[in-house]
Amino acid sequence: MTTLFYGLITGILFGFLLQKGRVLRYDKQLGALRLQDMTIVKFMLANIMVSMVGVYLLSDLGVVELSIRSLNLGANIIGGLLFGLGWGFLGYCPGTSLGAIGEGRWDALWGIAGMLVGAGLYAEAYPFMKATVLSWGVMGRLTLPQVLGLNHWLVIIPFIIGSLLLCRFFEKHGL
After folding, report:
1. Is 1 exposed, middle or buried (0-12, 13-18, 19+ CB in 10 A)?
2. What is the Cα 15 distance to its own chain's centre?
3. 97-134, pLDDT tens digit by residue?
4. What does the domain layout of the chain look like in residue ranges?
């Protein structure tokens, strides 16, 4: 029960930050897709930086144990293409479509309907996909630090520096 409560609090906080960061706005979504407004990219980079530090710090302190999923190139590539097409057609990604509903933008219901239909189709196609797409390019449980043979902090720190420099570049150029 405690884990569910923490998940609820984290979800509410993240939704609040999505709304305050204005990344739920259709114009921000479209601007990101057209590479004209990097608000969403900056928001995602900020979340990745905080998450990387938090997760690995908790792991190093022994508070949590990492559960790395297997890298599956076939599923990631096809899933990424479907995600991108859906985002491009609708103008919302799954998380922002739910947030947009919370703001009263009912056009996002199409995205939620699409997610439900897509989940149903995936469930029906799973036996076929397990033997095909889901078996293409299975690389095992890999992390970038493992591939590079480095301590995770030697990957996290340059990533943070690079992300901050990228965000500064975006700000400097009005993106």
Report:
1. exposed
2. 14
3. 888 888 888 888 988 898 899 899 999 999 998 888 88
4. 2-172
